[in-house]
Amino acid sequence: MWSGSPQTDEGLPPTLAAVPVSWKSVGPCKGHREPLGALVEASAGEKAQAEEGPAASRLDMSRLRSSSMEIREKGSEFLKEELHKAQKELKLKDEECERLVKVREQLEQELEELTASLFEEAHKMVREANMKQAASEKQLKEAWGKVDTTLFTEFQTWRASPTLDKTCPFLERVYREDVGPCLDFTMQELSALVQSAVEDNTLTIEPVASQTLPTLKVASVERGSTNTCALSGLARTCRHLIRLGDSESHYYISPSSRARITAVCNFFTYIRYIQQGLVRQDAEPMFWEIMRLRKEMSLAKLGFFPQEP
């Protein structure tokens, strides 16, 4: 309570403290009254919630730790399995590499042995070739002392201007001594036809098995037969046929007749090669090859020829 009258400043409102206020007790608002028990229960619930919060947090953390440990364990097992697989694959690769190394070493050793063997065989062949060449040269020198120089002179003259004219001295001698006697068969008419076909290079010899026509024309023989030679007229097993030029006539021939015809054909083939310039040798090797072919004609004429299997 103020004992004196309040002092006011002129022109200003009075202060709150200077305003008299009557105080009275004011109770709680009727609209906001709550039972005491509800308040107690709410207070207890808040307390319980406050107490359960840390426990739930600890439970969640424990679960997280457990899940993390489980993930780490599974990851560790997976990595261990992968490592085991990788180690196993590496071991297999190491074993394969070792096997390949052994194979390579074995191949290298075999290659070295083969190379050495080939070199040895090559040297052996060279030595044998040199020995054969020396022996051939020796035989050639010995043969030159026995050869009729007239034959070689006739050959050299023919070689200077090769021809198939049988009136030249060289071929006239070969015809008289080898070709004529070799193709002189019992069936004279067919023999002459055969010689003409050989000279013209129009004679064909083929196996009987390749001939499909059963009916054949044979000179001086009643019927063609695989048991009768058309040239000699003798009963022989005939395994070949001859055809002259473009004629459709075929003739069965025995192995002996075939050998004689073949020997003459080989001689004419060689001298044709010389005439065409296909044989590029010195005079001596050519002459000795012709002498060898003449020897074959002489042997075939006498009935000496390789027997067929």
> How many helices?
6
Question: What ranges have pLDDT less than 50 throughout 5 or more consecutive residues?
Answer: 1-34, 211-224
Describe the main β-sheet briefly: 3 strands, antiparallel
Shape: elongated
Rg from alpha-carbon coordinates: 64 Å
Mean pLDDT: 79
Number of domains: 2
- Biggest sheet, spatial arrangement of strands: 1-2-3
Intertermini distance:
165 Å
Number of DSSP strand runs: 3
Coiled coil: 76-124
Keywords: Coiled coil
GO molecular function: guanyl-nucleotide exchange factor activity
Organism: Castor canadensis
Could you give a quick summary of the protein structure above?
This protein has 309 residues and is mainly α. It has helices at residues 36-144, 149-160, 169-182, 188-200, 255-275, 283-301, and strands at residues 203-207, 240-244, 250-253.
Structural write-up:
- It comes from Castor canadensis.
- Pfam families: RAB3A-like_C (PF25555), Sec2p (PF06428).
- Residues 72-141 form the GDP/GTP exchange factor Sec2 N-terminal domain.
- The chain has helices spanning 36-144, 149-160, 169-182, 188-200, 255-275, 283-301; strands at residues 203-207, 240-244, 250-253.
- By secondary structure, the chain is mainly alpha-helical.
- Strands 1-2-3 form a 3-stranded antiparallel beta sheet.
- Helix 3 runs parallel beside helix 6 (283-301).
Descriptive key words:
6 helices, 2 domains, elongated, 309 residues, mainly alpha, three-stranded antiparallel sheet, RAB3IL/RAB3IP/Sec2, disordered N terminus, guanyl-nucleotide exchange factor activity, GDP/GTP exchange factor Sec2 N-terminal domain-containing protein
